[in-house]
Amino acid sequence: MEFFQYANQEMMVSMLGVLDDFERALKEIAKNGNPADLQGVELIYQKFKNKLTEKGLKTMEVKAGDSFDVDFHEAITQIPAPSEDLKGKIVDVIETGYTLNDKVIRFAKVVTGN
């Protein structure tokens, strides 16, 4: 059984880049494309993401202002905190993190304030 879980994890990790590409495409189409294209790509993205979710993939909910947690976040850089309340907190999320069956398979890449 462990072999199948590992194989599933490997496949899921390889699909994360595709999810990232979809998210970048959606942002770009929202800025420069037409609404019909955006709707079509969103539909495909949601179907794909739902299939991965059915297999146990979960998106980490991380946003600016959250406390930095080394168990879930990877700080790729630190910047001067834009406000006092953001010192030691997440200022920006650069890359989405994911868990598979409650195990981190990709840490959220974040910028922290100092």
TrEMBL record:
Listed SUPFAM superfamilies: Coiled-coil domain of nucleotide exchange factor GrpE, Head domain of nucleotide exchange factor GrpE
Key words, A-Z: Chaperone, Stress response
The keyword Chaperone is assigned to this record: yes
PROSITE patterns: GRPE
A Pfam entry, by short name: GrpE
Keyword Chaperone attributed: yes
GO MF terms, alphabetically ordered: adenyl-nucleotide exchange factor activity; protein homodimerization activity; protein-folding chaperone binding; unfolded protein binding
Gene Ontology annotations of biological process type: protein folding
Membrane spanning residue stretches: none
Family: Belongs to the GrpE family.
Job of this protein: Participates actively in the response to hyperosmotic and heat shock by preventing the aggregation of stress-denatured proteins, in association with DnaK and GrpE. It is the nucleotide exchange factor for DnaK and may function as a thermosensor. Unfolded proteins bind initially to DnaJ; upon interaction with the DnaJ-bound protein, DnaK hydrolyzes its bound ATP, resulting in the formation of a stable complex. GrpE releases ADP from DnaK; ATP binding to DnaK triggers the release of the substrate protein, thus completing the reaction cycle.
Protein name, per record: Protein GrpE
Species this chain originates from: Chryseobacterium gleum (Flavobacterium gleum)
